[in-house]
Amino acid sequence: MTPPSPMGDRFRRFRERLAAESLDRPPVRDDRPSTASGSTEAGGRQGRRGRRRGGGEELRVPEAEFTSYYGRPVLKGPVWKWDIAAYLFTGGLAAGSSLLAAGGQLTGRPALRRAGRVTALAAVSASAVFLVKDLGRPARFHHMLRVAKLTSPMSMGTWILTVYGPAAGVAAIAEAAGVLPRHGLLGLAGRALPSIGHAAGLVAAGTAPALATYTGVLLADTAVPSWHEAYPELPVIFAGSALASGAGVGLLAAPPAQAGPARRMAVAGAALELYGAHRVETRLGLLSEPYRLGWPGRLLRAGRLLTVGGVAGALLGRRSRVVGALSGTALLAASVLTRFGIFYGGVASARDPRYTVVPQRERVEARRTGMDLPSDRAVPPAV
C-alpha cells in the first residue's frame, strides 16, 4: 500500500480546519426590514418591476433631440450654389421661349417667333455658362456624352441639351436672313435660312418639354427629403414655370394684336405652377414645412402673387401694350422666385435632421403596423 502524499495530507487538514471554523462562527442575522409578504428589498424591487409590467405607471424614454455627432447634419446636403438655381430658371425660360416661337411660327406671328427664338438662344447660352461653372471644367460635360443612360436624369439632361442647343441656335440665326444681301453666296444663304430655321425651330420646340421638366426629375432623384418626396409635383411646377416665363417674353416683346398665344400660354403655365406649388406645400406633411417657412416660403408666396397678377393683367389688359409688358415682367419674376424657392426649400430640408429622421420613423412604424408585428420586433430606423 502506497503512503499518502504530503500534498494530499495538507489539503485534507485545510478542509477540516474550514469545517471547524464554520461550526464555531455565530449565525448572521438579517435585520433588514421585510415586506408584508416576507420578501426582502430585492424581492420588493422585483415586485415593483412586476407591477410595472402588470399595468402600473410605465416609464418612458424622453423624446430624442435631433442632434448628430459634432453638430454635423444627418444627411450630406447638396453642394450646389445659387448658380444651379439660376440654371433651373434659364433652362425653363429657354424651353418656354422655344414653344412660344413655334406658336408664332405656326400661326404667322413674326414678332412672337423672333422674340422666342432670340430669347431661347440667350437663355440656353446662359444655362451652359451656369452648368460649366458648377462642373468646374467644360470637359466634364463632354465626358457625359460617352454614354446614354436612360435611368440617369443627369445623362438624359446632357443629351437633351446637346440636341436642343444647336437647334435653338440655328433657329435664332435664321432670324438674320432678312439683313443679308440678296445676291451672291450670302444671298443664297439668306434664301435658305428661313426654311432651315423653321425646321430647327420645330426641333427645339419638340425638345423643349423634356428640357423644361428634366431638372425637376433631377432634383427628385436626390436624397434631399423635400425634393425626393415631391417627385410627382416638381416636373409639373417646372413645366408650368417654363410656360409662364415664355409667355412673359411674348407679352413683353409682341404687340397686343399678336400676343394671343402668349396669353394662352400664361394661363396654362400659371395653372400648372400654382397647382404644383399648392401640392408641395400641403401634401408632404412634415416635409412641406421647408416650402412654407423661412426664406423659401417667402420666395414661393411672392412667386404665387406675381403669377396671379401677371395672368390677370394679361387677360384684362389685352389691348394695352403697357399692361402687357407689366404682366410679362411679373410672370418672368414669378418664374425666378419659384425656381429659387424650390431650390432653397430642398437645401433647408437637408440641413435639419428632423426632416430625415421623423419620416424614416413613420415609414418604419407604418411597415410594422401593416405587417402586424409586436412592438419589440420593430426594426429601429437606419439613419
Offer a concise description of the structure.
With 383 residues, this protein is mostly helical. It is built from 14 helices and no strands.
- Unreliable stretches (pLDDT < 50, length at least 5) are 32-54, 373-383
Order of helices and strands: HHHHHHHHHHHHHH
How much of the sequence lies in strands comes to under 5%
Please summarize the sheet with the most strands: none
Query: Could you say which overall geometry the principal axes of the C-alpha atoms support?
Result: elongated
Distance between the termini: 76 Å
Average pLDDT confidence is 80
Helix content: over 70%
Gyration radius over CA = 36 Å
Total number of helical segments?
14
Give a count of the beta strands, DSSP E runs of length 2 or more.
0
SS class: mainly alpha
* Oligomeric state: single chain
What does this 3D model show about the protein?
By secondary structure, the protein is mostly helical. Helix content is 71%, strand content 0%. It contains 14 helices and no strands. The radius of gyration is 36 Å and the shape is elongated. The model is unreliable at 32-54 and 373-383 (pLDDT under 50).
